[in-house]
Amino acid sequence: MSVTYLEAIREAQARALADDPRVYIYGQDVGSFGGAFKATKGLAQQFPGRVFDAPISEDAMVGSAVGAAIEGMRPIIEMQFADFSTPGFNQIINQAATLYWRTQIPCPITIRLPSGGTSGSGPFHSQSMEALFAHYPGLIVMTPATVEDAYSMLLEAVAIDDPVIFCEHKFLYYHLKADKLPTESIPAGKARVARPGRDLTIVAYSAMVHEALAVAEELALEGTEIEVVDLRTIKPIDTDTIVASVARTGRVLVVGEAFPWGGVTAEVVARVATEAFGLLDAPPQRLNAKDTPIPYHPDLWAVHRPTARSISAAVRNLLQM
Amino acid sequence: MSVTYLEAIREAQARALADDPRVYIYGQDVGSFGGAFKATKGLAQQFPGRVFDAPISEDAMVGSAVGAAIEGMRPIIEMQFADFSTPGFNQIINQAATLYWRTQIPCPITIRLPSGGTSGSGPFHSQSMEALFAHYPGLIVMTPATVEDAYSMLLEAVAIDDPVIFCEHKFLYYHLKADKLPTESIPAGKARVARPGRDLTIVAYSAMVHEALAVAEELALEGTEIEVVDLRTIKPIDTDTIVASVARTGRVLVVGEAFPWGGVTAEVVARVATEAFGLLDAPPQRLNAKDTPIPYHPDLWAVHRPTARSISAAVRNLLQM
Amino acid sequence: MVTSPIFDLRPSDPTAERDIFVTTFRWMLLARTVDEKLAGLYRAGKIPGGGVYLGKGQEAVSASLGVSLQQGDVYAPLIRDGAGRLAFGETVIEALRTCLGSVLGPMRGRDGNVHRGRPKDGYLPMISHLGAMISVVNGALMAKRRRGEQHFVGATCLGEGGTSTGAFHEGMNQAGVERLPFVMLVTDNQYAYSTPTSRQFACKSLESRAAAYGFQAHSIDGTNLADCLRGLGSAVTQARNGGGPQLVIARLLRLCGHGEHDDASYVDDRLKNSPLGRDCMVVAEQRVIAEGWADKQEIQSWRAQASSEVEAAVVQVQTEASPDPYTERWSALKSTHLLDGFLNA
Amino acid sequence: MVTSPIFDLRPSDPTAERDIFVTTFRWMLLARTVDEKLAGLYRAGKIPGGGVYLGKGQEAVSASLGVSLQQGDVYAPLIRDGAGRLAFGETVIEALRTCLGSVLGPMRGRDGNVHRGRPKDGYLPMISHLGAMISVVNGALMAKRRRGEQHFVGATCLGEGGTSTGAFHEGMNQAGVERLPFVMLVTDNQYAYSTPTSRQFACKSLESRAAAYGFQAHSIDGTNLADCLRGLGSAVTQARNGGGPQLVIARLLRLCGHGEHDDASYVDDRLKNSPLGRDCMVVAEQRVIAEGWADKQEIQSWRAQASSEVEAAVVQVQTEASPDPYTERWSALKSTHLLDGFLNA
Ligand SMILES: Cc1ncc(C[n+]2csc(CCOP(=O)(O)OP(=O)(O)O)c2C)c(N)n1
Ligand SMILES: Cc1ncc(C[n+]2csc(CCOP(=O)(O)OP(=O)(O)O)c2C)c(N)n1
Ligand SMILES: [Mg+2]
Ligand SMILES: [Mg+2]
């Protein structure tokens, strides 16, 4: 048996529905159709009345989840694409994210964002929006990079008493496979050393973890040992694990697929600079997508986002510093 | 004669309307009423038909500005508060910001966001949203800190062929005064050394520039010379001016009023770490608001945001490092 | 619902017109008294936040919704709903604590003035973004239905200006699709801040929006308490009895500024002098007297009772501590183990 | 408007029913031919982006809007408007270049498939967010009015699902308030992706939304070209002649998947077998023959002409370069002096 990243997401939802009657799933086409990406396939049939279609109304989808959470439910909201969370943005950052702080009433909602680029998806179906949500207080932002994390972190997201933005990467949906679903997991909020190394640390998250691992493989053949840290959640960021890695390697490259101004890479580099200044043997570096919308054409897209190739170049450059 | 920051904004709009028939102003209550803050006072009367009220429809306000820009106009959109730009967020980042890149048709719109905290304004009338916009390609984000900049940068914003997010700080509206409107100005995109110094650089923008200057005054009495860099625009960021300042001082504290995850301070610290690593005598530091919504009560608010007091403490700490 | 300690205004016979009318009128009186006190405190510079937003002229419609709701219902009032809040079960002291920044208030100084509520009791605290509460009420109703609760209603309020928001549309449409027991009260007070309705919408009447969402429409004269009670009572009853979502449009004139900082000089004199410009308090009082439900003296005693409750509450709140930033828990998360250590150091 | 090189389908006598009908029918034929070609290229894995979104069954309504517009108008078509685009003045090659990722296409490979346009010619390229184009058209019309232009119209298209967005509401309301010469065409094809209308709205008919915005309502049978031409022609004319904004609701069934990846197995057989499930191409062809406007053979020759135009265009586009990422100007700003040097190093 093998299970894909997408199947793990489906299975986590099936288990959350089975384990907790307060859980329901709401989003466009998530009902009998099973969702645009089939992340809820069969769930409407398996859990009658608990997985149902929303109108094309992201604001109302999120607002209603907050209302249901106030009444003790634990809704999962599927955005059809992360990019379509913008009409729901206000309810996320101003309603959901502030509820607990304002009233002490928890807001246990999970918002699933099919995120990130895939070939040919273009400017409005490819965005990585984690930084927008991480900037606002009151939200937890998860960016699972593995099948195991997709499963266990989604279960955790549903169990957490605060709103969780669950950024699942569309590029990993079908291609990333594991042998089976995990029975144990690192808790949310903790980063993971995806590969140990001594010469340089790459901090990455979501799909970029795999690009980083590919580079680590490549450089290992040349005798360079790259440590890859997978952030797993980007709010909170596990600064300790990053600093510990930098302490070992003295060099750090932070890689993200999002736009280059601000975002996760800026936050991580800033923390490293502040907290691990004395541990650095060379300036910390970042690699992001280009500062333009995400292009449709596969050839443009392949250069717009960081890939093993551009990461490798950045690593080699940093190793020379 | 003296002119306030708010009057400068009004005067810049009056001049833009007078100089260019393609300019118009659209926003809630901006017409005969002159706007919630009176930033358009008298303009509807002075420029009949060119300054008019919008329904409470931020999405449509921005969308219509893009359409008008396609037809050659240069609209100014006033959001009643920056916080209410969220319903217009989608049109800003996905419509306005991508138009030129997609079609090569320029999108010369200016969106004015009355930003930042004032005492008692609470979580939904106090936000500093510049980082959200700066993260997205295709936008220019201005954060004027002085009366002169409020005037000259707003005129520039209207003249620029790209969408400009103009973050004017409500805290400065009435209190900040200058003798007269400027006749010359540093161009957009360039930072300004607001006060020269040799011991430590504070990089700040918008209202925080004044808190930083107060700290510089205070420390000057003790013989410590703080250099204060006012970013002026936060997209683009003038990295050269920052690096040059750090080259002089060796120490940098970056101060912003926004939430602490990501944002301007992370971006600036990350750039300093990467570009000025060898110039630093101590780890670069940041100071932001706390990671909660912005509190209503003045006593809470005063501690939530950075002030001269907390900046001074951070500076003293950094000077010891 | 926790009612005000001295004001436990439940009609003794809810079918008796007098009882309901007088009860509601007394909530209106209490709300007007609170508002006048707040206006005074504002002018005296005693409001920590600096602003107050009043419901003058809107007490009848607001209170009529409040009294039509009951325990187990969901209520998300808006900016001009001081009267409805009291009638639904807010206490005067809660209101004042929020406006005066007492740490004992329901928002503990974190949020202020009209942004207050008690979600556990079905009383939802508004955020500022207009229209945003509709779908929140929907979600609460969906949850109640899912849990098998019955005979509950959810209601929220908005000005006519707020109907121009996308959030209004999405929320209304969602309530229609789910056929929720939901009452949307839109009070058309002729202005959104300074903006007249001619710049706000182009429909002949806001009632026409009901059909667009599968709602039933009701029109009420917001200056006339009897009509407010009738219209809102009937809308709430229909929603409660399975009649699906209801849209109630009340017409009146805002009799104050947008906030107390605003002299509202833009308000058209013709509106002031039209029937819309009547003060619902005056109209209601005339009815009480005309019907012989109470005489001037009795009304005066109600007023005095309201005043003394409000004065006592102000005195008490003014002795209460404001929030202490140094003991404040600066955390937006319930999951303390997920706080970001770097940001919360 | 630049028309297709071999297709310069203007009715010779625009008042003659035959001319308009046949012209529109031929645009429909051309659009269907393009769509079928795209479906074939999709199945062959020749679409660089990987997806195509077709307008099968919607050609009549789409083309009828396209032919009703003229130079100086503003047109923002949506996902299923291949026919309208051609009729408005898009060339086959432009469409194919966009879908096949030629750098010579109007979007130069930066955006793809249905996201294309030529803003300078009043032909606006959609973004994906449903409802977002309405206010953009409004703004263009406001600008034209401000400049003193006359007799122009703006039109945009949406599916019934797209009417649930806040952007739809805000845009419609704005068009109403400004009383713009605007035509909103909503094609109710019974599904939004897989979602049936019962989960999308609760109004008895979408026409009821016209009154909510001060629009005039029109209903058309989207399977019937004659009715589409009548309804859209009349709506556009009324808008052009100062009749204010117009809402046109067309009913039909989507005869393809949401995209070509979707087998649309969820579509209700009863709908397929109902009058809504008729193919507008067939209905229109029958009319052409019944009226004696052309015979089978002539229609066959039109079809062949369409095919050869499309085939020729595909052959040409397939020789064209794709965008080169290394010479691409990676800049989202026109103001190159305001590019952030650090990000663009
Ligand atoms: C989305 C949004 N945009 C702007 C505002 C700013 N604002 C606060 S109240 C108001 C006017 C509201 O008018 P109306 O809805 O008619 O209510 P009224 O004040 O008349 O009771 C505006 C524009 C807001 N709160 N929310
Ligand atoms: C705001 C927004 N949310 C979600 C989507 C994803 N989406 C694309 S097309 C579609 C269905 C559209 O249905 P409808 O409007 O009826 O048009 P049709 O495809 O039937 O022509 C959805 C949900 C989107 N494009 N925009
Ligand atoms: Mg109003
Ligand atoms: Mg549809």
Anisotropy-based shape of chain A: globular
The secondary-structure element order of chain A is EHEHEHEHEHEHEEEEHEEHEHEHH
Q: Give the biggest sheet of chain A.
A: 7 strands, mixed
- Classify the helix fraction of chain A into a percent range: 25-40%
SSE layout and pairings?
The complex is a heterotetramer, with two copies of chain A (321 residues) and two copies of chain C (345 residues).
Chain A: E1 3-4, H1 5-19, E2 23-27, H2 43-46, E3 51-53, H3 58-70, E4 74-78, H4 89-103, E5 110-115, H5 130-135, E6 140-142, H6 147-159, E7 164-169, E8 177-178, E9 192-195, E10 200-204, H7 208-220, E11 226-230, E12 233-235, H8 239-249, E13 252-255, H9 263-275, E14 285-287, H10 298-304, H11 308-320
Parallel strand pairs in A: 2-3, 2-4, 4-5, 5-7, 6-7, 10-11, 10-13, 13-14
Antiparallel strand pairs in A: 1-8, 6-12, 9-11
Helix pairs in contact in A: 1-6, 3-4, 7-11, 8-9
Chain C: H1 17-43, H2 59-68, E1 74-76, H3 82-88, H4 92-100, H5 132-146, E2 154-159, H6 166-178, E3 182-188, E4 191-192, E5 195-196, H7 208-213, E6 216-221, H8 225-240, E7 246-251, H9 269-273, H10 280-290, H11 296-319
Helix pairs in contact in C: 1-2, 1-3, 1-10, 1-11, 2-3, 2-8, 4-11, 5-6
The structure holds thiamine diphosphate (2 copies) and magnesium ion (2 copies).
The site of one magnesium ion has 6 residues of chain C, from strand 4.
Summed up:
The complex is a heterotetramer, with 2 copies of chain A (321 residues) and 2 copies of chain C (345 residues). Chain A has 321 residues and is of the alpha/beta class.
